[in-house]
Specification:
The chain has 179 residues and is mainly beta. It is built from 2 helices and 13 strands; from the N terminus they run E-E-E-E-E-E-E-E-E-E-E-E-H-E-H. The protein has 2 domains: 68 residues, SH3 type barrels (Roll); 97 residues, no CATH class.
């Protein structure tokens, strides 16, 4: 079975052509594909490719299937989508104490990556850089079960790993699509 190839490339400028649920506010907008999620073979047929698209005029990220997008044939420079400051984006609202917190981050000179903070049965905090199945890279940070895992714990962990307190919270891409 030959793998279904994508008709849209990473950093390609696309136009949203669908106007169904989840697309309507983006219809006609131009954006840049920052991540491609490959099609998978399921139940005897190929699924569509998924894409994370950045819309500079809206300063927003959104996810689309290939059939919702029209490629323009133009490519943005990859450097235009690399970080210029230390940014993080939480996938969900972080409560007072969670078991897992996920999101994305971007540091100067790097593209968006993902973070996963999770409580584990360990004595001391630990972390490592990881590559997920999709090829996206990022940080896994584990805390002891007795620790409080909230927004401040994530900021402290990122500050420790990257040696900076200068994190700015923004609306970045959803880590679940990226990984």
């Amino acid at each position: 079975m030959q793998k279904k190839e994508s008709g849209i490339r990473r950093f390609e400028v696309v136009s949203v052509v669908a106007d169904g649920p989840g697309c309507r506010e983006f219809t006609g907008q131009l954006g840049t594909v920052i991540w491609c999620d490959p099609a998978v073979y399921r139940r005897g047929e190929w699924t569509e490719w998924g894409y994370c698209v950045y819309f500079p005029t809206l300063d927003r990220y959104a996810s689309f299937l290939e059939s919702s997008l029209q490629p323009t044939g133009r490519l943005d420079a990859e450097e235009a989508h690399q970080g210029r400051r230390f940014e993080l984006s939480f996938d969900t609202v972080v409560g007072e104490d969670a078991d897992v917190v996920e999101g994305s981050y971007r540091v100067p000179g790097r593209p968006w990556e993902i973070f996963l903070f999770e409580k584990r049965d360990i004595a001391e905090p630990r972390h490592h850089f990881s590559t997920w199945r999709s090829g996206i890279t990022g940080l896994e940070f584990f805390l002891p079960k007795r620790a409080v895992l909230d927004r401040e714990a994530v900021l402290r962990g990122l500050a420790e790993v990257f040696s900076t307190q200068d994190w700015v919270e923004v609306r970045g891409p959803d880590s679940l699509l990226l990984k």
